[in-house]
Each structure stands twice: as C-alpha cells, then as structure tokens.
Amino acid sequence: MSTITETRSTPTPPPTAAPELKVTGRRVLRSEWAKLWSLRSTWITLPLGLLFLFAVGIIAALRYRSMSGSGQPMDPDFVDATAYSLALFGLPFALIALGVLGVLTTSGEYTTGMIRSTLAAVPRRLPVLWSKAAVYGVIAFIVAIAGAAVAFAVSSATLSGTAAAVSLSDDGVVRGLLGAGIYLGLVGVIGVALGALLRSTAGGISALVGSFLLVPGLMSLLPASWRTDITPYLPSNAGESIFALQHNAGSLSAGAGLLVLLGWTALALGGAAYRLVRSDA
Amino acid sequence: MIEARTLTKRYGERVAVDAVDFTVRPGTVTGFLGPNGAGKSTTMRLIIGLDAPTAGSVTVNGRRYARHTAPLSEVGALLEARSIHPGRSAFDHLMALAYTHGVRRARVDEVIEMTGLRAVARKRAGAFSLGMGQRLGIAAALLGDPQTIMLDEPVNGLDPEGVRWIRTLLTDLATAGRTVFVSSHLMSEMALVADHLIIVGKGRVLADTTVQDLVRQAGGDTVVVASADPARLRQVLAGPDVEITGRPGSERLSVTGMSPRAIGIAAAEHGIALFELTAKTVSLEEAFMDLTKDAVEYQSTTPTGRAA
Lengths: 281, 308
Hints:
The complex is a heterodimer of chains A (281) and B (308).
Chain A: H1 25-37, H2 40-70, H3 83-87, H4 91-112, H5 114-121, H6 126-158, H7 173-198, H8 201-218, H9 224-230, H10 235-243, H11 254-278
Helix pairs in contact in A: 1-6, 2-4, 2-6, 4-5, 4-6, 4-7, 4-8, 6-7, 7-8, 7-10, 7-11, 10-11
Chain B: E1 2-11, E2 14-24, E3 29-33, H1 40-47, E4 55-60, E5 75-78, H2 90-101, H3 105-114, H4 130-142, E6 148-152, H5 160-175, E7 179-184, H6 187-193, E8 196-201, E9 204-210, H7 211-217, E10 222-227, H8 230-237, E11 243-245, E12 252-256, H9 260-269, E13 274-280, H10 284-292
Parallel strand pairs in B: 3-7, 3-8, 5-6, 6-7
Antiparallel strand pairs in B: 1-2, 1-4, 8-9, 10-12, 10-13, 11-12
Helix pairs in contact in B: 2-3, 3-4
C-alpha cells in the first residue's frame, strides 16, 4: 500500500493578525456605545423620556398657576405642591421610557440573536454587561438631569410670586435635581440588568414596571406596622427620597435612599452577571 | 487548530455531543458532516464558548476560545442561527464588532467589499435576503482576519449563485492557507470542498477520515473478480499497491488498486478464466448514508405488507 501523502504543498504562511487587535474594557465600552446609537429605538425613546419629563412638568406648573390665579379652592392634589415638585411631575413617565429602553438594550440582544455575535467577540462576557450598564446608566442620567433642569427652570419662572415659588438657589434644589438624574440613571441600569437576567423584552418590562409602579400599590395589603417598615426600602420609595426636598418621618434621607437604591441595582446586576456567566447563550 | 477532547454536552436528558474527540488541522478544509440533529451546531457553539461543555474540553490554537486576548482573530464563526440585530445596518453591525477588538474601519470596508455587500451596507440587516444575511455573517467572521474560519451549514437555503459563491470562498480561504471548518448535512457539497471529513451522528464521531479514504472504505475502487483458482489469481495480481481480500472457499476476490482492465489482461496472460469482473462503484453519498444510517434522528420506514 502506498502511503498517502498530503497533496497540498506547504501552505503560504497565513497573514498574522495585526498585533494591536485585542479586546479591552474601553473597546467594549466603545462598542456598546456604538450599538446603542445605531438603533432607531434609542432615537425614539430617549427624546420621548426627555419630552415626558419637561412637557409634563411644564404642564403641571401652568395648571397650578391657572388654579392659584382663579381664586377657587385649590385642587387637593396641588395643595402641597411647589415649583420643584410640579417640575418633576413627569418623572414616573420618564422612568418608564428610560427603564424600558434599558431593558431593550439587553433583552434585544437575546430576542434577535445578536447576543451570539456579541459573545463571540467578547467571550469573557462580563465586560459586555458592565459596559452596557455604564453606557446606558450615564445616558439615562444625562437625559433625566437635562429634562428635570429644563422643567424646573420653566416651572420656577412660571410660579415665581405664587405660594409654590421655589428657586434654584433654594436649599436642596440643585442636590435634588441631581438626585432625580441619579434615580433615573440607576433605573436605566436596573432595566439593563433585568433584560439580561430575564432575556425577554416582555419579561424585563413587566419586572421593571411591576417593581417600580405596582409593588408600591400592593403595600396597602400589608398590616400597617409592616407597611411602614418595608415601604421606604422599596426601589421606588428609596429612589424618590433621593430627590425629595422634604423628608417626612416615614421616608429615608436622601443619602440612605441612594444607598438602598444602589443596593437594589447591585442585586439586579449581580443576578444578571450570574446568569450571563453561568448559562449558555 | 481546533482540538476537542471527550467533549460532551448534555441538555437535560438529551446528549447532544457525546464524548467527541477530533482535531481540525491547520491549512485544510475539514468538513463536519452528519445528519440533522447529529450535534454539529452544538459542537460549534461549544468551540466558541457560547455553550459550556458538560464534560471534556475544546481548545482553539491551544487555549479555550474565551482565554484569547483577541478571539475574533483566532476563529471567525458563522453560526447557523442568525446572529444579527435586524434594526442595525450591516455597516453598524460590523463596526460594533470591530470596536471590541480595535479593528480599523478600513478593515470593515474591506470585508464589506470582499463579501459584495457595499450596495446594501447602510440598509437595515432585517431587510436582507437569506443570501445577504449569510454574506454579512461571513463578513463578520472575516473581520478579525482569523487563521481559522468556522461555518455552520453555510449553503443551507441558498440559491445556486449563493452556493457557488460560498464554495469559491471556501476554496480561496483554504488556498490562502487558512483552516476552514465547515459543517453540512450534504455529502455531495462536502466532497467538492473538503480534504478531511469528520462524520458525526447522534453526537458521536462515526468517522475521521479523508474523502479518498472514505471512498476506499466504502469499496469505491474495488473490483470484484471471480475465477476457478482464486489462489493462483491472487499471486498473479499481487503487487505493491494492490490489496486483495477474499473469503476462503469462495471463488470471488475483492481487489483494490487495480483497474478491471489491468486485472483482465493479467488473468489472460496467465491463462486464467474469469467468471466475473465487476467494478464496484459507490458514491460518496452512499458511503455517507451507510455510515450514518443508524444515527439519523428520524428514520423513514417504508410500510411493508400493510395492505388493507
């Protein structure tokens, strides 16, 4: 029997990959930044979040002025209102818009199959989650603080001279606006984490809306003593105390609220990281 | 070089890949062949770390894929399932992947050019035809200029033009000295491009062979010859490249390494009368079917004797 010799002559040495090719944290960040801005949903949802924040805030301020000028008794919802609280009237709406987009940045990777390309490029996986959370958290923060600042500027100008007047130089206002930005930035990060944890858009959005908007409503089902113990620690209540100007007896201080919300964020991110590393993509 | 060692993947009760051992050698086209459900796609997912093995290991150029600093320059993979966000343009998709490795924009343009996507590069990938989607997947696989290209069923569902394009691409890559690992469930397709074949069925390696050897094993160039004196005929035909087998007591011999014509002439020169001289031709397709017949997921059974 003859020996079978390899018929192919010595292959030409393959072109060695350019030496600078290497996955780094910064490059993954850059990639996630590019991914976010190359989707239409980003260009729709972010302006929508911004619009909710200042449009609703401005409408609330105008409504207050027309009521306070009319001489009729004040609507009970508006009795304690200030230019600051009215400016942030649209915050829950912006929270949904920004939170949903956060969910989409990760759940969309799974529902479309993009995750396979992403993880083939970054097989260590965790840098993808950290980058998505960082990129989107910062963007949500900037959008929220911009929206809140514009809403407050208009609201404060509209209501100067009324009982609700608050100006930027008043105690805690700047810190509060910053707090509102941080709150929505963290909501964005929680959205990113929930999308990665549940790998489903519907599931992620439900979990987000449920934990921020529905669970607080369910607190009334608890015995009163439990309710006062638990409620301040819910993500939504903790978040609201970050930017609230007045802290009543039952709520957390701004610093404590921030710590509690950071805890929730870390929990969600930790769960997402665990699933990302441990289960098949 | 891809090396799998007792690579195993279980999904609950089902064993998708069952203690598989194989090596994909550099500079060749290795066909990864098997019926649907044989574990080809799972194996490829294990190679690039999308799935974690239940047992065993698979390495790429000596390390696990995830341990490389620039994975896209080690293996470029085109998976069977679409791995693209339909809302992103082809260019943006490639750019997003390029950023992770610091691949220059010029290279992105280059792979777009190579795969003929220039006209549609700014269009949403969701609107792409199957063939265009495959081209985009291949563009992504080539992005990091990897030494090894891995493609899962690249011709599945493509029109003849697309099939030809892929075929040319595979041979071009191999000629350029790349390692190509390509899966298919079509033997005929593999025979055209592959040097080496790894045949799997039900998660196991059934054969690790070359196209020529597979043909030979299946009796591809065997000649069956019968005469009254097989022992003498055996002596007459014996030679360095000739292999002769026959059962004791049987008039028939199976000869490989000689053409029927040469056998006939040799027999006539020695005055041996032949009763039979048949060239056994076996197509690759048959050889493959023969190997995998016990391993196909859904066997079709012809109904017999069930009239009325």
